[in-house]
């Protein structure tokens, strides 16, 4: 559903064929490449979800609505200030970090009273609130922005890749690497990993657990701001636009193992390719069937995911 | 010792978990440089006292002074920053982090500038940890985890180190080594409050001791005197 791909368009004439169509290696390779490009952005959305799950042990139901809000923020900055979506990362990533931090520190945390079921309901309530606010302000119309490079592409001889999506891939991989480095190398990152498994031990070395929770939530939300800036040059936004991504992201989180950062990255790329190939072979409208099938299969055969060790 | 001001002074401390109070009027002092043993049967409230002292549990009454400052009601990070470090019962190390990272986080709030020197010192005290510095802490043996928990506590350069049952679950030989070690770090200048079930060995290395029963101290005094007191066994066994 999310991206339209050149490869799928190229294969469209075969769709009515009831037998599985044969494609030239170039078309399949292009589909795989496009899948990787899409998958990297999926991975970014999944990273935020899996990070929050891994540390706070909750599924953040507001993730989709926050992504939508970030996409509208990109739209508004473009329409009002003429700000390019990529430049919009500069104000929006810190802003969404702060929004996420504040939501966890002053709304979700205090409202949950330490009860996970409450947290679930609070994030669900937040998502409804955000969606309806966006609906009230922007109506349910689908909107896009115009950027001069929207239809530029990179020619690889055998494949033509849309420039904005190549940029999205590059930035997503850099952000994932930066997040990994933060978690592995800095004191803040180590504190996040410490709190994930051992709250009391963390408090006893002087880690402010509520602060670390909020930082984690802020990082997850900041990932969404990056994703929104990468998506808007080629994608549309409506008050429900984020939902489609979060369904895919949730599949990735389950596939990669709940809470696993490398799992989210590799799972995202994998799901991107699956979507692209099943779009190629089964038709664009059925592109997500492959994802759904994988989701069910993981739940049946490997509920801990490919990288998940946790019970 | 009486003329120096105590490092830790607790008066009239009351605390619990919402129901009836567990600690029902605790008075305690720890002088700089000494080892104080806190003894008592299971479930009398020793760990609860440690939790209150380290700020993870808020007392409902009483006063705690550490290094001259009131710390009752202060949050755990502020208490660590002040130099009171609690190595908890059950170790509470970070299982997904490796040994080295666990130690690094020991200086998250305090003594961060001296991290490198303190890492070297902890590895010197516990060569076993140095051998395993890249091993995930969750896969360490029980004894190694206890060393890691103490090492992590030392990383903050504490003024007072509270050890909650450091010998729990260790083999007799390791218990012996653990007590030798505690005496050694005390001789190096560290003040220690030792909560233990190993009464005899604790009284051997402690200067003074307190015996808790039902959330109150029922005996207190020089460790040597307590060791010789027939009342001790009675109080300890709750007879
Ligand atoms: N989180 C808690 N909620 C409710 N009650 C608790 C909690 N933690 C401890 N208690 C109760 O408080 C009492 C004192 O427990 P505490 O852990 O302080 O004992 P202890 O003296 O350390 O015992 P042990 O020697 O077995 O470690 C016990 O009755 C225990 O059940
Ligand atoms: Mg205890």
From TrEMBL, chain B:
Q: Which UniProt keywords apply?
A: Amino-acid transport, ATP-binding, Nucleotide-binding, Transport
- Record GO terms (molecular function): ATP binding; ATP hydrolysis activity; branched-chain amino acid transmembrane transporter activity
Highest taxon, organism lineage: Bacteria
In terms of InterPro entries, this protein maps to: AAA+_ATPase (IPR003593), ABC_transporter-like_ATP-bd (IPR003439), ABC_transporter-like_CS (IPR017871), BCAA_Transport_ATP-bd_LivF (IPR052156), P-loop_NTPase (IPR027417)
Query: Would the keyword ATP-binding turn up in this protein's UniProt record?
Result: yes
Alphabetical list of CDD domains matching this protein: ABC_TM1139_LivF_branched
Every copy of the ABC transporter domain together lies at: 8-239
Q: In its keyword annotation, does this UniProt entry include Ion transport?
A: no
Q: Which GO terms describe its biological process?
A: L-amino acid transport
Pfam families, from UniProt?
ABC_tran
Similarity remark: Belongs to the ABC transporter superfamily.
PANTHER family referenced in this protein's UniProt entry, alphabetically: HIGH-AFFINITY BRANCHED-CHAIN AMINO ACID TRANSPORT ATP-BINDING PROTEIN LIVF
Tell me what this protein is called: ATP-binding cassette domain-containing protein
